[in-house]
């Protein structure tokens, strides 16, 4: 076999690998999305969103200028799925807290959480209505045609230009830069500031990008990157716990005590508890340990 033929053969193999990986995610996204529209089942919403997120990761590598027109479609779908999924997770979190309060005999906190859950369920109805309206407008025959055209006419040329290992290294560098920013902020008297929480949130997003890219593009990565999915999942989980607890508190404050018709004493006790949980998660994470002030 001549050098040119060998090069062509390798390129066809590379294109086929990309096509198989993309099609696997696309079919999962399509099926789970249509299932989600039938019953809004938690797992269908979750899987549709995850597969959509992985598709976005691969498309951003292959086609960063979004010439195929696919990226904006998947991005809109992810946004709508994300609103419902986030509401599902938030409601489930408050349900668990309510169960704990009832087991502890704390009826006032249980009543507060019952009101919060009802409020959030109303919001979720709005998100579900928007999803039911907008998702079919995105996932239809037009998308099928765009997808087929992308695979048959664009994929080979795009895949030929990309080395996912280089992209992963760039994502690693971006993560390390954000981690450096966090470390600069996270000394003892500044770790609980808005600046610190915002920096930690950006670090979590960078870890999530590494996790999803390493998972979706595993077929094209060097061995040294194969453990990245688990490594960055652990990091994302730790940082996500802080972010989730902060979100619970922000959600309550955004609703307000008056809207929920909750007594001041019960409100203050529960929001104080949430603040303590946020700070406890913050101080016990080992991704960005808080630097204590050294005394001489």
Task: Provide a short characterization of the protein structure.
The protein is mostly helical.
Topology:
Blueprint: H1 3-39, H2 42-62, H3 70-103, H4 107-138, H5 141-161, H6 164-185, H7 194-216, H8 228-255, H9 257-260, H10 264-283
Helix pairs in contact: 1-2, 1-5, 2-3, 2-7, 3-4, 6-7, 7-8, 8-10
CA distance, first residue to last residue: 73 Å
Mean pLDDT: 91
Helix content: over 70%
Structural class: mainly alpha
Molecular shape: flat
Low-confidence stretches: none
**How many domains, as an integer?**
2
Element-by-element helix/strand order: HHHHHHHHHH
Report the sheet with the most strands, covering strand number, pairing sense and barrel closure: none
Please work out how many helical segments DSSP would assign: 10
* Estimated share of beta-strand residues: under 5%
Radius of gyration: 23 Å
Give a count of the beta strands, DSSP E runs of length 2 or more: 0
């Amino acid at each position: 076999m001549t050098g040119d033929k060998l090069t062509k053969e390798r390129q066809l193999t590379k294109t086929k690998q990309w096509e198989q990986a993309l099609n696997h995610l696309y079919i999962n996204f399509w099926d789970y999305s249509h299932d989600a529209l039938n019953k809004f089942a938690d797992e269908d919403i979750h899987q549709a969103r995850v597969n959509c997120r992985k598709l976005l990761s691969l498309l951003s590598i292959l086609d960063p200028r979004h010439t195929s027109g696919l990226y904006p479609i998947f991005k809109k779908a992810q946004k709508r799925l994300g609103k419902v999924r986030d509401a599902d997770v938030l409601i489930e979190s408050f349900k668990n807290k309510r169960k704990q309060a009832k087991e502890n005999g704390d009826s006032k906190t249980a009543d507060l959480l019952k009101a919060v859950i009802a409020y959030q369920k109303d919001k979720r109805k709005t998100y579900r209505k928007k999803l039911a309206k907008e998702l079919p407008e995105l996932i239809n025959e037009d998308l099928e045609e765009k997808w087929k055209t992308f695979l048959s006419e664009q994929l080979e040329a795009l895949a030929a230009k990309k080395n996912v290992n280089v992209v992963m290294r760039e994502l690693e560098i971006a993560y390390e830069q954000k981690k450096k920013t966090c470390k600069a902020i996270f000394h003892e008297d500044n770790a609980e500031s808005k600046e610190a929480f915002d920096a930690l949130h950006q670090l979590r997003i960078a870890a999530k990008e590494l996790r999803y890219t390493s998972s979706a593009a595993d077929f094209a990565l060097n061995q040294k990157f194969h453990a990245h999915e688990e490594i960055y999942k652990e990091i994302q989980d730790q940082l996500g716990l802080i972010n989730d607890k902060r979100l619970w508190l922000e959600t309550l404050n955004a609703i307000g005590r008056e809207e929920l018709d909750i007594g001041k004493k019960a409100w203050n006790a529960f929001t104080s508890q949430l603040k303590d949980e946020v700070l406890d998660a913050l101080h016990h994470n080992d991704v960005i340990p808080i630097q204590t002030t050294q005394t001489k």
